[in-house]
Structure formats: structure tokens, C-alpha cells
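Weekly sync notes, structure subgroup
Attendees: PM, AL, DS (notes)

Item 1: joint prediction request from the bench team. They want all three components modeled as one assembly rather than separately. Inputs as received:
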Amino acid sequence: MRARPAPAAVTVPADWPTTEAGARAVQDTLRARVDLTGPGPEPGTGTAAGVDVAYDDGRGLVAAAAVVLDAATLEPVEEATAVGPVPFPYVPGLLAFRELPAVLTALAALATPPGLVVCDGYGVAHPRRFGLASHLGVLTGLPSIGVAKNPFTFTHPAPGDRRGDQTPLTDGAEEVGRALRTRAGVRPVYVSAGHGVPLDRAVAHTLRLAPAYRLPETTRRADALCRAALRAALGEGAGRG
DNA sequence: GCGACAG
DNA sequence: ATCTTGTCGC
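Output from the run, pasted for the record:
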């Protein structure tokens, strides 16, 4: 069978924050650059990439994957992976500082940039309105959305149980995202605008990318690929110690 | 101060 | 995220 393409080596930027206060300061600066109007690509056109990461905290290793699908057919177009050191601990609200170096490296390894990036997590639904998807969008200039599996600190009325039913995700005041049923009778996903895509359109993208399962195909593919990349990287390490 | 908290 | 077997169901 075809050999898996070698993962790109992740290099953490020299100015990457190392403290929580430093990371929050970066968020407070970059949040001004978020574009909430877009409109970004028409759902079902061009390409959409899913990005995800897997960790081996014991070895301080992270593997990222970027999987590009044809937005109309959901057929794979291209994929890339990256492996490197874990640059930041998991801190709620600071997830981007843990995931972005590897994710950006994988995205940069693609021959053609995608028309949309779908992140595993939140965009503007975030304590400082600058979650992973927004951060990625601002740094790359690519339209991005966040599709999370948990409501994080937000609340929402239960959406109806049919596919497409949705309710506002709020912090008690403003709507920061949408609880969206992608599959009848299954827990909703939590969609928020990242960068360059308005919320309603982010929801439309999510529904088109998730025709059969709870999570978008982009996310499912990226999740499978980053896990495989991590296993491959660990396997190599064991072979020559 | 305590609890809760995307992945 | 990750630790983890079998099991019920389409």
C-alpha cells in the first residue's frame, strides 16, 4: 500500500506565549481583527478543511492533521500532518495556544489552501470572544468556523430533535453561537463563527458537511488522521531508541 | 476562596 | 484530550 506522507516538523514560533497572562494578552490584542460578517464561501462550494490534534502528554508530543474535502461531494482532495512538541498546557479558554502551532504547520503543508477551515472547538463563543477557530482565522486569513462537542461555559434551550433544529447558545445575554442538531435524536453540536463567516452561514456549512453523522466529515476525517499520525510517530520512536 | 470549564 | 471490554443494534 501507499506509504503515508511524512509529517511536517512543527516549529513553535519564538514569540509563542509561555504564560497564561501572556496568552490572554495575545487574545485581547488579536480579537480586534476578527471579521464576523464575511461572508466567506457559499456552503457546498469550493473546499473545506477539517483540522484536529491528538496528544501523547507523557512524551510531550502532539500530532495535527488537516484534511481537505470537496465541499460539494465531501470527497477527499488532500491531506497533511505535522508532529512536534506540546507548546502549552490545556487551560480552558487558552486551547489555541496548545493546538495552533501544530495545526498551522499541517495547514501550511497543503499544496492548496482550503476555502474554509472547520475547527474542533469554538470561535467567538469564548470568554474573551477569541476561541481557537477565530484565532486560526485571524492568523491565516482563511474563513473559519468552530464546531464543538460541548457547550463549554454557555447555555442553551434544548433544540427540537430533528436534523437542522437549533437554538441560541448564550452567556446569559448575547448569542455567541448555536446549538445545532445535525442528526435526529442525537446530542447537538455547538457552532460558532470563527473568522470571515457569519453565524447563520457557519450553521449552513456545518449541516452540509455533516449529512450522516453528528460531527462534520471534515472533523471525523481529521480526527482519524491525527490519531494515525500520532501512532506512527510513537511507533518510530520505539524502533530506534 | 470554590467550582466550572472547548480539547 | 486520554485511560479502556464487551456489548447492543443497524
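Discussion: Chain A has a mean pLDDT of 95.
Action: AL to compare against the crosslinking data before next sync.
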